[in-house]
Design a protein that fits this description.
This is P-type Cu(+) transporter. The protein is 44% helix and 21% strand. The protein has 975 residues and is an alpha+beta fold.
Length: 975
Amino acid sequence: MSLIIQNGKMEANGRADLKAPLLQPPDGVAIAVPKEKDHRDKKLKTIKLKIGDIKCSSCATSIESVLGELNGVERTIVSPLDGHAAISYIPDLVTAQKIRETIEGAGFSVDEFPEQEMSVCRLRIKGMACTSCSESVERALLMVNGIKKAVVGLALEEAKIHFDQNLTDTDHIIEAVEDAGFGAELISSGNDMNKVHLKIEGVNSIEDATTIQAFLESSQGVNHVEMDLAEHKVTINYDPDLTGPRSLIQRVEEASLGPIIYHASLYVPPRRRETEKLQEIRTYRNQFFMSCLFSVPVFLFSMVLPMLHPYGNWLEYRIQNMLSIGMLLRWILCTPVQFIVGRRFYVGSYHALRRKSANMDVLVALGTNAAYFYSVYIVIKAMTSKKFEGQDFFETSAMLISFILLGKYLEVLAKGKTSDALAKLTELSPETAYLITRDSDGNVVSEMEISTELIQRNDVIKIVPGAKVPVDGIVIDGQSHVNESMITGEARPIAKRPGDKVIGGTMNENGCLLVKATHVGSETALSQIVQLVEAAQLARAPVQKLADQISKFFVPTVVIAAFITWLGWFIPGEAGLYPSHWIPKAMDGFELALQFGISVLVVACPCALGLATPTAVMVATGKGASQGVLIKGGDALEKAYKVKTVIFDKTGTLTVGKPVVVSAVLFSSFSMEEFCDMATAAEVNSEHPIAKAVVEHAKRLRQKVGSSAVHVAEAKDFEVHTGAGVSGKVGEKMVLVGNKRLMRACNVTIGTEVENYISENEQLARTCVLVSIDGKIAGAFAVTDPVKPEAGRVISYLHSMGISAIMVTGDNWATAAAIAKEVGIGKVFAETDPMGKADRIKDLQGKGITVAMVGDGINDSPALVAADVGMAIGAGTDVAIEAADIVLIKSNLEDVVTAIDLSRKTILRIRLNYVWALGYNILGMPIAAGILYPFIGIRLPPWLAGACMAASSISVVCSSLLLQSYKKPLHSANS
């Protein structure tokens, strides 16, 4: 039996192989094979362990035996030699931890128990009002056994959770969020990447479902099938290299038997985000209007009509004792606002207090309840007394709730705008595409319009002028210009010919193209950009820690401050320590003190504090993505803001990255044909751009000087010498192709003539590639890589920003110095290998300098990781470069400036947001507490305090939205 273990899953080469013993017995020997447990409908998982204390094969047999008795363990293979074990089990029936405990219970130690493969899911969180809410959700999630990491984004209203699927699942995670008092809904799970949902017609019984499931499971490339008989749906995990949605639909239809015909169609789960956002906006709007329906009359009856004699006199008519019509009407109208419209604040307060925390809802509930129930006390006292005179605060309670709801309504409207850039990106992909079928000669046989979701790898798609490119691919026929501005920010249309790559979501302008699909579904550049931006918007920036720390003690501090304010006014009032004329008519000292206390409670609400950072990060990352700069979250933004030195790689970064050979010269008796053949054979296996240029030039030269192209012998013992060149044996001759460092390392003598040739070319910023045959220099190629036209302007602009530029390259000193001089870089590190580049960065960091590294994301990976900010330039469609903090989709150096400038503007905007968020509180709290009242008679009524609190949140979100108007500081001449 041949087993393949991939991603923690054990798969068999064939279904029949599962029943074959591991060791085939010799002829004539019977071996009893234990009956296999029938769990075909269950999902298997494999864990690999290192077991200690195994002394012989009987120990291994004992472990296999004891695990075999464990319900859920399907099979166990233990090596008696090294103690390695592979155990297949059903996660629904047994956990990896239970398996470990069973092994240890049998008297063996488990030396290596690997971290379980983490699953990732994203949830939509409902009901979060401020930073303390998001922290509460995080705490609730981290208390769940099996969750290793949880990040909750307040502005995005989402959570990203890393968990061990052996210990918990998405149902338990959602339950934990709901127990904490918030709503939760699954957006996606980590295994959604290559998953398709199909709607099945013609399934009327369990037998039909079993037939379809069996057909699908036996299909090549299908990893897992889940049938939902009630909904007539099937969910399939598949390998995109082997199959795709269209083939799976066809496979379902092939399962039809006789009169029973099955039909399958693509089922796309509804996109709930937009619907929910609209629903949330509608809810706040309706609640605000309902609140206004009652609050406006309350305001008129308490503040407007009493001043309009004789129109308001009827409100003073007394029904019983001192109870007036106006007071009763205000009570009746305020009650629905307090308990029906304001119910959300009670619910939020209950859940917050149950979690032993406090949030905005607690402050609002305290403030409105104090005003409402004191007013009820006034009503009861007026009803039962013939002499009592008191002022109710019903308008305070009603108007406070109305203003807060207005603020939340405007806030959700504005927050919807912060993710506009991301929404535009997700809508770029067209809904349909034209699938072409061709015969063996390349002639078009058929053409049909299909859903973009049904495109599979290697499909040929026809893209007509004016149509969008549906997926990433390579042009195989036709010529056109494609506008890639929506993905890369590059305004100029790019010419496309056979062999060129196209990106899904871009616009074909003038010609007809036939494109072979290379990346489909979640693998496309557009999908990866969206995933990166979503992850960035969820990531918490270090600067946000300030808001998180403040929010922990803010609400309790505010409650204490409000109580002290009330005492500070009430006690001196009772003691007669301030003049009686300070107390307004129809009010006593207690009521004045209560109003000041309620105003402090309300004006200090920390809602805006939690929005200051995430809203700015959301807008900035979305704006950056629309301009071809992918910033991986607030952490990358904050680091880029601090950058003082930018280190540039040379090849492909400062230069075009497509080297061309400008001359070739011989230094030996070898003929040009033999010289070219040797160089081609040695370099043909190298992926380096210079090697490709040498091979291309050598082949052209060979065809010019030779009679005809001949087969070149393959190099044996081929070896890459990082940062130096390559070596290999061509025929009986040892060939070295590379720089001076390689020649010296291999003891090849470099003569005066060769030195002079190298020196002359290096002064012209050319790289010399030396070719040694059997220990002697046979000849050389002079290679040049043109400098990018914008390089000089970018370096100059960085200097004007107070940022120094350094070049680090594996090329020789003379060439590096010539390039550096041309672009305006003063400091150069040449002849440096990839690890050496990382060391140079660490040296600078040791001096306290924040360093950004700009490279091509391939051989510069160590340096990109070592730098404070790694910028991968020229990534093309390969946008998911793990090493980089910032991905620059285009090969344009101007985006380095854009990334740093956008980071600076974003961090400054975040700081301004904190001013807006805390400014209302810092200025508003003393005024609300009545500090100005003794001097100029100004006080902040509770309803006005509520308006200030709402304005604080709206100010922060609108401030962040101003980043939408960001423009690049440098514009390409081609733009």
